[in-house]
Write a structure and sequence with these properties.
The complex is a heterodimer of chains A (147) and B (97).
Chain A (H helix, E strand, L loop, with lengths): L14 E7 L2 H4 L12 E2 L1 H7 L2 H8 L7 E11 L5 H25 L9 E6 L2 E6 L17
Parallel strand pairs in A: 1-2, 3-4
Antiparallel strand pairs in A: 1-3, 4-5
Helix pairs in contact in A: 3-4
Chain B lengths: L2 H7 L4 H30 L14 H4 L25 H8 L3
Classes of the chains: A alpha/beta (147), B mainly alpha (97).
């Protein structure tokens, strides 16, 4: 996304999917029913693998909810809302997902893809968005899927 | 008003709903597969030193502007400015009523 990413608004997604850290197991006995699963990662292992800068990147600034490694985002508004604002928010969220997936690929598992996915929903209109590293010289490549 | 009118007015198509449901199922499958790889990478693979960080640590890119030039010895209190007043005068100004 390059320099244009700086012009994006800070992401405030309506729904975002990802992982959570199981730090609550240690610091809060009231939440001891949270077990380690595919969507609940062991923070001690992560702290061994990543430095503090990377931990902040994969958490995308969401620190209180122990959220990390976002994969899918949903942005929506009603018919009266702005399509531009929704897409701008989605691209901002894509930037966070892209950075987190880049760290996951380089530090955790080389087989992990870098593929931010998301949906924009404006009124009755739903469109699927995806992003991936662009290896060509073009800044933006658009692909229209056949109906 | 008949059923056809309602479906046209709301742009409702059964095949679109099926397509969207199929898409969400595929997205969930993709997310589960991604999470499984991520989980296995974190919990089953030991951290190795050959992993390359994409985010440089602060010490990797920040230059220390206070570094001395090689061979040059700088006194420890070189930044202390001489304000042209003696310690006796300071004592008199601040401590003597």
């Amino acid at each position: 996304m390059g320099q244009f990413s700086r012009d994006l608004t800070s992401p405030n997604p309506d729904i975002v999917f990802g992982s959570r850290l199981n730090r609550a197991l240690l610091v809060d006995e009231l939440k001891d029913n949270i077990k380690i699963s595919n969507f609940s990662l062991d923070h001690r292992r992560l702290e061994e693998m990543l430095n503090i800068t990377e931990l902040l990147e994969v958490a995308c600034g969401v620190t209180e909810d122990l959220f990390c490694f976002p994969t899918f985002v949903v942005e929506r508004t009603s018919d009266s809302g702005s399509l531009h604002a929704v897409e701008n928010q989605l691209l901002g969220a894509f930037r966070c997902i892209f950075e987190a997936q880049k760290i996951a690929q380089s530090r955790v598992n080389k087989d992990l893809p870098i593929l931010p996915l998301g949906i924009t929903n404006v009124g009755n209109w739903i469109s699927l968005w995806a992003g991936w590293p662009n290896s060509s010289d073009e800044d933006v490549a658009s692909i229209v899927l056949p109906h | 008003m008949n059923a056809a009118h309602i479906t046209d007015y709301h742009l409702f198509r059964v095949e679109n709903c099926i397509e969207f449901a199929s898409l969400t199922v595929r997205v969930v499958m993709w997310m589960r597969e991604y999470q499984e790889k991520l989980f296995n990478g974190i919990h089953k693979n030991p951290a190795t030193s050959n992993m390359v960080s994409t985010v440089p640590a602060k010490r990797d890119y920040e230059t220390d502007e206070d570094d001395d030039v090689e061979g040059q010895i700088r006194p420890k209190r070189a930044n202390t400015k001489n304000i042209g007043i003696s310690e006796a005068e300071l004592f008199r100004l601040y401590l003597v009523p």
